[in-house]
């Protein structure tokens, strides 16, 4: 009888860990200590904090969501392999087979693009075939895309230092790089919910927005050569960028995910694909969860942005168009949360709102850079 | 009376009112991003016309975020949110402490999430199991006696969620108050009461009257100063609407040096100013270097590197005449931000030197996809005639490589809205502008045309061939063409063709004429070289291209707008650093509010309030019910999990 007690009782996180979890944590800590010893002269004290902070965050993430462990280890291993192949010589990107076709930053990101588009197609096939197996295959492709994308970004980070030590910077500094980041984060958040709620049927919808971003990336590469690494303008040379931008994109990614789930919800509530999609309640819940997490991170990102602005521009809030639109996005989702939490509203209205919210968000994300001028003008098209 | 104030209170503290305010705030914010803010007023007049300009000005649309109505919205938002907190917090706090131990069996049976079990074992055992069940799942509990000898275990978890509401809404209030303190509310009030006024005249800071000056005591401000190297200042300026205010400072700032560092590609890498701060309270002047992202704070005032401009560089020009039959040049000295008057009376023109840039990073490749490169210094100036009409010019000091060849480039535009139209003067074989200028003088020299014509006919017509009548005719048409070209370039030649050649033959004539002009240009160039004591040009590809470019350029002179070309020969660079000075005491409030906000949001979203009731009856029947203040899927999932677990536990 006591066994039953024990079996059902929730076990605290630390007691749930197995040796692989500890090995993973050890690897990450050892890796960051190594990186610290090697590179601390490139970092200010905040950045040293971020290094270990990031290690702790990824240890925790890997513990609570196991697939992250494999992802982090895979990204680390492939990136180190690429660095080894480069041997501090940028020209080897065109000479070494593995770099040229697989894991130079440009190839990595290209693989990401291809894999995301494939994943989108396969998710849709799985939706129409109701095939569990095909669905799993689509998820694997999405995971592979995420892996290659992160490798591409990590290697890009290294490549920027090879161009010249003073050019080196984290690859979240221009529209091209953040679009890659957007794809990765949106896909990761989606994969989390897919596993948590067994909602593989939504993959086709979410990957549509990721594919749209991939389309933009491709256009941006081929028409504008946006993938060439540019040195940072003085305004961006700050440790704030390292936390402000990724935080922002967790927000954008989550909002985009919610909008695509909203689309699925609206179709299903009209009877389209209803038998193939998850229940309306489940989709409603995913939509809420994702807007909630997006809202939390977007709030943090906006605050970090304000603190950065206070240091770079002389004021935490200048009503610069980007700031103002961030406020509008924020107000929009605050209203959404009020309606749902306070008024208990559910259903198509909120789904529509989430979809329209994506347009507002997209405008804040790229529209502002295209149509309005301001202090954030480094992201111009 | 009672009811009116109650009604106002209800309205102000209602969510509907708050949401309306937020919506208006959102729309107003959008207006501010669509309509460019704080532009010079003349721009708006041009854009909207006088009538709408005035309407929009009354509405405060040129500085939405500081207009009275916008600030009023914020004030109302603070008021409404405060009342909302005042109204709801007591309930929230009470809810947090409440156990709800008075639930009756009947009410528990009405719950949607409930289940009933028949447990085995003694009542004590059952109670022990159940309380352990609750404790291990993070519930706090309390056991109370219930009607009919039953016992009720009431439990709750996540009640701190309610603090989330208080934290977020309090945060909004705190942030808005911080923002209002740092906004220009104090000035607005003084302005409304008539104590202060925006200065619109362009006069030295020392002459600005007291009503447009803000004293050192001013609580918060955001002002600018431009310091040329080697100068100092103890006042800064706040631009406001169509004028400015002078903000006095409790210290003096001097600029020792301003530096721009560049990446290998030429793009700017850092902007740095070496500042010296002097203050009676300082034993020694304070020296500090600031750069973008690395400001300096002294006496609560933070000094930022915000921009830079020319601080009055000295420029030495060689001013070339572009018309007339002589090669004439004149040395001219200019200073950036200053003016120079040339000529007299109606002929007078004013040169206004606007800017000098030492580095210009351009992409000169044909398709615009090539590498960026530094093409060296340029100077921007206006040429204003006696009627006050001005054209703007930008002239590069060094030849630029365009389509594989080098040119002295100078752009001209008649209005600021236009793009520059560029004059490209080809470099000569010594990489100078002189070759073109000598060529130009000969081409425009009517007296030289005769010689050119005869030389051309000598070389173009077969020797001993046609008679002198043909020769004379040929030479006369060469002279005619040269004259036309000298008076108006290709345009004039085209007009000539239109006048004198029947339509059907024009194309052919044009081809012949161009051939003749090219030939004449070759002779003219050699003549020019001869006059300058230089050997004749090699009749190679290089010379042909130079002559073609020169002819094009010559033709473009007629559209260049001034009869002279300003060649920049030397410069003495002097920079000015643009500093921003701010005092923002509201910042700490805003930051604390932000922390509250984040804590509150996480509490509200990630803490779930749940309550469990377990009614243990004397006959060992257990009634289990769970509820949450938010009905959602999480509750359903948790209920079914607990339901099964309890089933096993109590079996
Ligand atoms: C400005 C005036 C505002 C008013 C008058 C207002 C009013 C309210 C009221 C009455 C509730 C109900 C609390 C409950 O019964 O649980 C509420 C909840 C909430 N408010 Fe606001 N609110 C305002 C602004 C905001 C803003 C700007 C946010 C953005 C973060 C916000 C976020 C929330 C959230 C997330 C809830 C749900 C709380 C819960 O159910 O636990 N509120 N608000």
Structure description:
The complex is a heterodimer of chains A (about 375) and B (about 650). With about 375 residues, chain A is mostly helical. Chain A is built from 15 helices and no strands. Chain A folds into 3 domains: about 10-65, no CATH class; about 80-230; about 240-380. By secondary structure, chain B is an alpha+beta fold. Chain B is about 40% helix and about 30% strand. Chain B contains 15 helices and 26 strands. In chain B, the strands form 6 sheets. In chain B, strands 14, 15, 18, 19, 20, 21 and 22 form a 7-stranded antiparallel β-sheet that branches. In chain B, helix 9 packs across helix 12 (about 505-530). The longest helix of chain B has about 35 residues, at about 470-500. Chain B is elongated. The model of chain B has no long low-confidence stretch (mean pLDDT about 90). The interface between A and B is large, with 56 and 59 residues. The complex binds protoporphyrin IX containing FE. Protoporphyrin IX containing FE sits at the interface of chains B and A.
Helix content of chain B: 40-55%
Helix count, DSSP H or I runs of 4 or more residues of chain A: 15
The helix-and-strand class of chain B reads alpha+beta
Mean pLDDT of chain B: 90
H-E order of chain A = HHHHHHHHHHHHHHH
Q: What characterizes the major β-sheet of chain A?
A: none
The tally of structural domains of chain A comes to: 3
**Could you tell me the mean pLDDT of chain A?**
91
List keywords for this structure.
heterodimer; A: 381 residues; mainly alpha; 3 domains; B: 651 residues; alpha+beta; 7-stranded antiparallel β-sheet; 15 helices; 28% strand; binds protoporphyrin IX containing FE
A few lines on this structure:
The complex is a heterodimer of chains A (381) and B (651). Chain A is mainly alpha-helical and 381 residues long. Chain A contains 15 helices and no strands.
């Amino acid at each position: 009888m006591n066994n039953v007690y024990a079996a059902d009782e929730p076990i605290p996180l630390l007691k749930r860990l197995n040796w692989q979890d500890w090995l993973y944590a050890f690897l990450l800590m050892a890796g960051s200590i190594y990186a610290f010893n090697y590179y601390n002269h490139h970092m200010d004290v905040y950045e040293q904090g971020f290094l270990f902070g990031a290690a702790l965050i990824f240890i925790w993430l890997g513990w609570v969501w196991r697939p992250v462990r494999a992802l982090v280890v895979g990204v680390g291993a492939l990136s180190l392999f690429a660095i080894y192949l480069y041997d501090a010589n940028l020209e080897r990107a065109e000479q070494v087979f593995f770099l040229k076709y697989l894991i130079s930053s440009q190839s990595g990101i290209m693989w990401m693009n291809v894999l995301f588009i494939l994943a989108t197609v396969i998710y849709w096939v799985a939706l129409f075939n109701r095939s569990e197996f095909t669905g799993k295959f689509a998820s694997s492709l999405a995971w592979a895309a995420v892996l290659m994308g992160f490798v591409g970004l990590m290697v890009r980070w290294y490549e920027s230092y090879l161009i010249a030590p003073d050019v080196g910077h984290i690859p979240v500094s221009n529209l091209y790089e953040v679009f890659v980041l957007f794809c990765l984060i949106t896909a990761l958040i989606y994969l989390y919910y897919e596993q948590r709620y067994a909602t593989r049927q939504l993959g086709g919808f979410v990957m549509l927005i990721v594919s749209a971003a991939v389309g933009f990336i491709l256009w941006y590469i081929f028409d504008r050569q946006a993938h060439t690494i540019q040195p940072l303008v003085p305004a961006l040379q700050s440790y704030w960028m390292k936390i402000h931008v990724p935080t922002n994109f967790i927000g954008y990614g989550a909002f985009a995910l919610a909008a695509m789930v909203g689309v699925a919800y609206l179709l299903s509530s009209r009877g389209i694909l209803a038998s193939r999609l998850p229940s309306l309640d489940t989709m409603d819940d995913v939509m809420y969860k994702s807007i909630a997490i997006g809202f939390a991170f977007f709030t943090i990102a906006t605050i970090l942005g304000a603190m950065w602005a206070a240091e770079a521009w002389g004021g935490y809030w200048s009503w610069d168009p980007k700031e103002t639109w961030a406020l509008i996005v924020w107000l929009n989702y605050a209203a959404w949360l009020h309606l749902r939490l306070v008024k208990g509203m559910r259903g198509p209205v909120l789904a529509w709102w989430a979809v329209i919210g994506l347009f507002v968000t997209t405008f804040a994300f790229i529209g502002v850079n295209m149509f309005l001028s301001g202090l954030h003008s480094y992201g111009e098209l | 009376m009672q009811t009116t104030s109650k009604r106002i209170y209800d309205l102000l503290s209602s969510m509907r009112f708050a949401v309306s305010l937020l919506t208006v705030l959102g729309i107003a914010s959008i207006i501010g991003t669509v309509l460019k803010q704080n532009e010079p007023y003349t721009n708006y007049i041009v854009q909207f016309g006088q009538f709408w300009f005035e309407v929009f000005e009354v509405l405060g649309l040129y500085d939405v975020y500081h207009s009275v109505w916008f600030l009023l919205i914020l004030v109302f938002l603070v008021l409404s949110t405060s009342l909302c907190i005042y109204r709801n917090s007591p309930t929230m706090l009470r809810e947090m402490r409440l156990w709800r131990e008075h639930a009756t069996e009947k009410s528990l049976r009405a719950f949607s999430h409930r289940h009933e079990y028949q447990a085995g074992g003694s009542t004590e055992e059952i109670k022990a199991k159940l309380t352990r069940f609750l404790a291990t799942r993070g519930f706090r509990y309390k056991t109370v006696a219930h009607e009919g000898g039953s016992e009720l275990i009431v439990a709750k978890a996540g009640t701190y969620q309610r603090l989330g509401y208080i934290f977020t809404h309090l945060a909004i209030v705190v942030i808005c108050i911080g923002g209002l303190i740092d906004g220009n509310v104090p000035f607005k009030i003084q302005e409304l009461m008539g104590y202060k006024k925006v200065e619109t005249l362009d006069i030295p800071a020392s002459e600005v009257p007291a009503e447009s000056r803000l004293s050192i005591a001013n609580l918060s401000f955001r002002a600018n100063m431009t310091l040329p190297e080697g100068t100092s200042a103890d006042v800064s300026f706040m631009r406001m609407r169509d004028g400015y205010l002078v903000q006095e400072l409790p210290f003096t700032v001097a600029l020792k040096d301003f530096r721009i560092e560049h990446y290998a590609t030429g793009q700017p890498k850092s902007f740095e100013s070496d500042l010296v701060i002097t203050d009676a309270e300082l034993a020694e002047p304070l020296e500090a270097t600031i750069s973008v992202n690395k400001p300096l704070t002294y006496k609560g005032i933070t000094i930022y590197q915000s921009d830079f401009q020319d601080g009055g560089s000295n420029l030495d020009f060689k001013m070339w005449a572009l018309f007339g039959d002589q090669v004439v040049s004149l040395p001219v000295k200019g200073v950036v931000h200053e003016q120079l008057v040339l000529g007299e009376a109606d002929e007078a023109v004013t040169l206004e030197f606007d800017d000098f840039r030492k580095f210009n990073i351009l992409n000169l490749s044909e398709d615009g996809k090539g590498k960026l490169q530094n093409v060296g210094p340029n100077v921007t100036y206006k040429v204003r005639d006696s009627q006050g009409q001005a054209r703007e010019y930008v002239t590069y000091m060094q030849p630029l490589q365009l389509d594989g060849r080098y040119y002295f480039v100078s752009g001209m535009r008649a209005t600021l809205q236009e793009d520059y139209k560029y004059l490209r003067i080809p470099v000569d074989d010594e990489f100078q502008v002189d070759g073109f200028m000598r060529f130009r003088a000969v081409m425009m020299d009517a007296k030289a045309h005769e010689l050119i014509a005869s030389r051309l006919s000598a070389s173009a017509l077969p020797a001993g061939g046609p008679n002198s009548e043909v020769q004379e005719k040929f030479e006369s048409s060469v002279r005619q063409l040269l004259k036309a070209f000298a008076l108006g370039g290709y345009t004039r030649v085209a007009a000539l063709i239109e006048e004198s050649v029947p339509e059907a033959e024009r194309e052919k004539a044009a081809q012949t004429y161009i051939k003749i002009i090219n030939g004449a240009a070759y002779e003219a160039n050699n003549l020019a070289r001869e006059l300058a004591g230089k050997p004749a040009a090699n009749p190679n590809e290089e010379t042909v291209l130079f002559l073609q470019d020169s002819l094009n350029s010559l033709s473009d002179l007629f559209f260049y707008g001034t009869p002279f070309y300003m060649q920049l020969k030397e410069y003495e660079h002097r920079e000015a650093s643009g500093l921003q000075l701010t005092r923002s005491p509201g910042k700490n409030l805003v930051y604390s509010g932000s922390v509250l906000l984040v804590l509150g949001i996480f509490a509200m979203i990630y803490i779930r309030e749940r309550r469990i009731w377990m009614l243990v009856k004397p006959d060992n029947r257990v009634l289990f019910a769970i509820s949450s203040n938010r009905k959602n899927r999480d509750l359903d999932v948790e209920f079914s999990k607990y339901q099964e677990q309890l089933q096993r536990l109590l079996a």
